[in-house]
Amino acid sequence: MLFRLGVLRKQHPAIKAAVDLLRGVLAGLFLGAPENTQTDGATSRPNLAELERLLQWLAATGDFNPEVLRLRVWLGFLSQLEVEETTEILESCDGLAAWFETRSEEVLGRYTPNVNKFQAETHPGYRWREDAVFCGRRRVEYHLGMVGTEVLNQAFRQDFLAAHRKVLLVPPCMCHPEEKCKAQQTPFGARCAHCTPGCRVNQLTCLGEKHGFGVFILPDELSVFSTRGSKPQAVEGLGVVGVSCVLTNLGGGWETRQMEVPAQGIPLDYCGCKWHWHEEGFPTDINLHQLFRVMEIDVGKAKGIK
User: Fold this and answer.
1) Measured between alpha carbons, how far is residue 246 from residues 29, 54, 162, 241, 265 in Å?
2) How many CA atoms lie within 13 A of 226 on its CB side?
3) Buried b vs exposed e over 201-218: b needs ≥16 C-beta within 10 Å?
4) In 3D, which of 295, 185, 175 has the Cα closest to residue 241?
5) Other CB atoms closer than 10 Å to residue 8's CB: what's the count?
């Protein structure tokens, strides 16, 4: 039911608030973190039944659709193997995950020092919210998002560079002040109207006008950029740079890949939107040097933005 409600909120934005309220209640009741335990208290060896249960939980949250799609392929592959071989592969995955959690905290932990504090002090108040699972992700998931985005960036780099048109997609939380933003709606997202000189979206739009790439505020659905959509000619030869929080950037990369649109991802430096993280919200930002690198812009020619 939670999965179907997740589909419903995307298909009918007008009732999204009501659906989210119901999803929050149901998630609070039924979506506790899945545990891998036996009735006698001993931890079981990983098996396909537990993997299937995990996939059902991930699908019910509505936050892991690209991951579920790919893990189901793995489930199909593993189901064709002998039980012992399957168990050994799953145990290897467990070991790799444990290593990654330790190693990623050593290398990337300086970027996520406040996640544990948020989980301990703020997240308990999210119990009945629709985004409780999304906002409750552990520190290692932030690190996985960082690494995953870089892996996809390298994998899709040449296709992106070959695209003869480039578009930068930024989230609404980068607008300042967001509630007074006068961006004009287009079929591909809102376009900056240059209403506030100090707004980062305005500055990026000016940069794009100078260096030949468009800037849009993220639309509700990335499918508007699909080459298989209703306007394939409008997006033909298009390369996308997607900016979003680190928890969603990797999924966005997989989504654009499925739409056959070459993309590069740039995570926000920090989260600040009022939908998930802060009661009033505050403007977010990105690492401009990373944008220059992705777009192949000479830093010396990018004067006036810092």
Assistant:
1) 27, 22, 26, 14, 9
2) 12
3) bbbbbbbbeeeebbbbbb
4) 295
5) 15
CA–CA distances in Å: residue 52 to residues 97, 278, 291: 18, 35, 39
**Cβ atoms 260, 226 nearer than 8 A:** yes
pLDDT, one tens digit per residue, over 190-248 is 999 999 888 999 999 999 999 999 999 987 566 566 655 555 555 788 999 999 999 99
Environment class of 182 (CB within 10 Å of its CB; exposed 0-12, middle 13-18, buried 19+): exposed
Tokens of 211: 């260096």
Q: Where are the beta strands (DSSP E) in the chain?
A: 165-170, 213-217, 238-244, 263-267
Nearest CA-CA partner of 222 in 274, 169, 182, 173? 169
Which residues have a Cβ under 8 Å from the Cβ of 209 and sit 6 or more positions away?
none
Residue 119 DSSP code: H
Structure tokens given for 46: 């990983």
Give CA–CA dist 144/161, Å, rounded.
25
What are 61-102's pLDDT values in tens digits?
Answer: 888 989 999 999 999 999 999 999 999 999 999 999 999 999
